[in-house]
Amino acid sequence: MTSKLIQLDEVRRICSGCNMRQLCLPAGLQPGEINELDQLVQKRRRIKTDEYLFRAGDVAQAIYAVRVGSFKSFRLREDGVWQIVGIHLPGELFGLDALADRCHQVSVQALETSNVCALPLADLEAVSARMPSLSKQVMRMTSRELNSGHDNHELLARRSAQERVALFLCRYADRRRNCGLQADSFDMAISRQDLSNYLGLQLETVSRAFRQLKDLGCITANRSLLEIKDLSSLRDIAGFCDNTPDYAYHQ
Amino acid sequence: MTSKLIQLDEVRRICSGCNMRQLCLPAGLQPGEINELDQLVQKRRRIKTDEYLFRAGDVAQAIYAVRVGSFKSFRLREDGVWQIVGIHLPGELFGLDALADRCHQVSVQALETSNVCALPLADLEAVSARMPSLSKQVMRMTSRELNSGHDNHELLARRSAQERVALFLCRYADRRRNCGLQADSFDMAISRQDLSNYLGLQLETVSRAFRQLKDLGCITANRSLLEIKDLSSLRDIAGFCDNTPDYAYHQ
DNA sequence: GCCGCTTATTGATCATGATCAAATGCCCGC
DNA sequence: GCGGGCATTTGATCATGATCAATAAGCGGC
Fold first, then answer.
1. From B237, which residue of chain A is nearest by alpha-carbon distance?
2. Is B147's CB within 8 Å of A244's CB?
3. Which CA distances in Å does B232 have to A204, A224, B20, B209, B235?
4. Domains of chain A and CATH, by start
5. What pLDDT, on a 0 to 100 scale, did the predictor assign at position B3?
6. Which bases of chain C are contacted by protein, using any atom under 7 A from a CB?
7. pLDDT in tens, B161-171
8. What residues contact B7, with CB distance under 8 A and at least 6 apart?
9. In angstroms, rounded to a whole number, what is the distance separating the alpha carbons of residues B94 and B89?
């Protein structure tokens, strides 16, 4: 039994056996190509909570994919204020912001004990000519990142505190479901401090928004433990609160 | 004289003679490669103010580069509220958000009479194996887009109205300077309505922020005509207003 | 030039979220 | 179990920006 578990664990180490293979770099590749990818990817690097994977300013060595756990990317503004700009869940790529000038623009820290795969940039460039489907998949995943940036814009612009929190929770649950994790009851690795920073709100404001959502029966929340009781009303709160006619009738 | 002007105009039509060649797709390519790129790019499509280049939901045909003028990308939320998520100036690429599933996620409209080049997706894929430096440059430009998404997050999260407006103006001026346009006195093609939507503020709030910046002597503004009188104090207002110690001393 | 439309500005009031302050609860080491 | 430190919650007050309302300033059409 033990040896079987270890074998299973071994299988999951390789891209073709990984749970994330439908979402991550192997998607759209031929079996032979996946094997080739496997040779390049540095797998299963274990990162503990709050450990840095890299820091803004570091020369970029690789692009990264979350296998297990989650990460935050953030910037330190010139005035010393930090801003979280991204949360990364399993199957998502990050470190792509460094491709412009080979230098990381954000710092990345693990939000919990996590597991990350790295594809060295030198290898990526070397094989991209040989494996067009790989560079195509990298582009697809980068494009997804761009859209999630637009999601963030929408999240932050012209939304009340309650809407922001509700929308964040809906999306977080969706993303968890998408990568095969429990989506209605889970431990949010992200602290209130980090969440409020990400959402552009004060800690206290986020806390109060949680309270309201609890009182409405949408969720239960105890510290980082979250349970979504009524997803559909949570969605309503997230999206359909204000209908400014000015904007509603714009062509 | 007239014929000389026409000749010059002809030269600018081709990538190797284009003013934006250092910023845009030709950057980093060999002269031979630039000629090849030239054959693929559909050039100088003229777009009038408010004309759509494409709409969210359209099947993506190409990626686009601004040659002259400017564009806005925006989404229509399910509840009918629209949100501008990007402003595109000369030398910048857009339409990249469609690479994930070949379908545009945003609509794009010209903010003024503009000029755009298009690289068909089919061609991009076909030549990327043959021209690794081109796909590398596309990735570099996409990476820049990702970072500008992070800039937007920073712009919107936890900043006062005045800071948002000042920061927007600084960045807008920087981007204009970067692509060779007049940066201290110019016509902002973007309306107050669009600007306020982009910044997540009300129209009136943006108007008041302009007034304050005028009163401080940082700018003069008459409708869309803007003059930056004191860039350094504008930068100060944009970045160094609040120093929340909580965030300032975070590792 | 004049009229009507759209865009921008200014004013007054109100609601939301920031800020200041305190209390509570939880986790960890001893 | 106890105590200290940290994260979170709750409360009270205040400032900022949203909202409502009205005016002013271009701009195009005739």
1. A79
2. no
3. 34, 43, 27, 17, 5
4. 18-155 (2.60.120.10), 160-242 (1.10.10.10)
5. 57
6. 7-12, 16-21, 26-27
7. 999 999 999 99
8. none
9. 10
